[in-house]
Amino acid sequence: VSEPGRDDEMLDSFLERRSEINQAYRRAADEEPSRALDSSILSASRAAISDARRRRPWAARWGAPLAAAAVLALAVAIGMQLRDQAELALEAPDAAVRTEPRSPALETQSKSKRTEQEKETARAKTREGVEKRSDAAAPPPAPAESEVSQRPRELKPEARQNAEKDELDDSVLSQRPFAAGKADESTRAAPQGAREPAAPEASLKKIQEQYARGEIEQADRALRQFCVDFPGHSLPAELSSRAARLAFSCNQRSDGK
Amino acid sequence: MLAYRDGDAAAFAELYQRHRGGLYRFVLRQCRDRARADELFQDIWMNVIAARSRYMPSAKFSTFLYLCARNRLIDHFRAKGRNLEESDDPDDPLDPPAPAAAQPDQALERRQRAARLLAAIEALPASQREAFLLHEEGELTLEEIAKITGVGRETVKSRLRYALSRLRAHLEEAL
User: Fold this and answer.
1) Cβ of B114 and A28 within 8 Å?
2) Which of A72, A83, A212, B120 could be bridged to B170 by S-S, CB 3.0 to 4.6 A?
3) pTM of the full predicted structure?
4) Interchain contact, B136 vs A25, CB within 8 Å
5) CB distance from B115 to chain A under 8 Å?
6) How many Å lie between the alpha carbon of A26 and the closest alpha carbon of chain B?
7) Local structure of residue B85 (DSSP, 8 states)
8) Is the Cβ of B137 closer than 8 Å to some Cβ of chain A?
9) pLDDT value, residue B95
């Protein structure tokens, strides 16, 4: 006859593995699989693993390493891009600083430089106007040939007046390099501060060469500039006659004065 | 098992060492024949090896292992035209204890008591024996036994209570 309280107590002690039945069963039950059975099962487990490794498809074998490599490459690329963006962001304030107004001294210097350029172009414009008035048959300068020929159109009237005033001043003109002209291409490429008037003879030689090459317009302009830069300088006969045809001479300025 | 699934053969060896004795005795007590127990035991482990790629750790490995064992035993008894509940086979007993004359007195008595206990376990109804062995050999809790056998926790508790009562009666008779 089983008693409920005793049965529950026995069950609890059995579940906690401390009952007499647990101990008796532990002592009685000692059967184990044979060594042969053990080795058979263990070798089967190893064979299954090696077989699975052999049968693994290419994608399963290399998928994970390739995916890892792709993720790494992507991360590096994104990192480099972010670094570039950060560098650009750091450079942006520097650029802003560079665009800020410069010091008054620098500003004055650049302003005077600009004014000088404007004056030069204005002078060229004025000369062209005079030339047009005196010789209607003379060919107009090619508009696309230089930026100098376009610039006078953009000048303000007061700048043009100043330029014309300067043009009449021979003393200023004699010291000024023939920057506005296109007589000498090589001098145009030189820095403005370093420009010096070429030796008269060399300039004349270049002008003669230009005429010889058929660069008539350039040669005319160079001749005209020569007469501006070296007023009163004697010209060879052919250049003198050409200057006469173009209605100017190297004595023109000095005569005018 | 997860390590073995990922290709670690040593992990399987460790699992096997941990569970080999308990599982073997669980199978042996159910089928009561060493040769058949060897065959079933091997089949169960082969099933575990084959199922490694599908293994999901939803419970303890021992729960998974004893569920595999139970399913294999059900298949075995079904093939013999019986079910697990009717697995008692009086014509297929376990090895009998050694003759009494060959044993010293104390050792003889121990072996006789052990044989009687094992005989009492084999005499239990299959469901009670199964619950007893799952707890004793598989070291499973009431909830785990209920999960494997597909019954409620209280049913398992009741089965165990009846099993223990019978076993205690056998032991007292033997004394």
Assistant:
1) yes
2) B120
3) 0.49
4) yes
5) yes
6) 9
7) G
8) yes
9) 46
